Amino acid sequence: MGMVRVRHFEFLCRSHGIEPDIEKFRSMYQLIRNMGFYSFALRNVKKILLNPPKSFHDWKMKFFFI
């Protein structure tokens, strides 16, 4: 799962036009050891979306082909 988090971080940075680097990554994730394996866990960062929507009921009204 650690590599998935690294790739997710890279995709997010590049989609926002930000060059990914280790300082930014370390500000969001920390290295953890769980049952002999190493991975990355989210740090206590401020969440942007506190109450995510459960569903989008009217998505068909807003969907269109390009």
Give a description of the structure:
By secondary structure, this protein is an alpha+beta fold. It has a domain at 1-43. The protein contains three helices and two strands. Strands 1-2 form a two-stranded antiparallel sheet. The model has no long low-confidence stretch (mean pLDDT 81).
- Tell me the strand percentage band: 15-25%
The largest sheet is: 2 strands, antiparallel
Helix content: 25-40%
Q: Which structural class should the secondary elements be placed in?
A: alpha+beta
From the N-terminal CA to the C-terminal CA, the straight-line distance is: 34 Å
Radius of gyration equals 16 Å
**Order of helices and strands, N to C?**
HHEEH
Number of helices: 3
Shape: extended
Mean pLDDT over the full residue set = 81
Low-pLDDT regions: none
Strand order of the largest sheet: 1-2
The tally of beta strands, per DSSP, is 2
Question: How would you summarize what this structure contains?
Answer:
With 66 residues, the chain is α+β, with helices and mostly antiparallel strands.
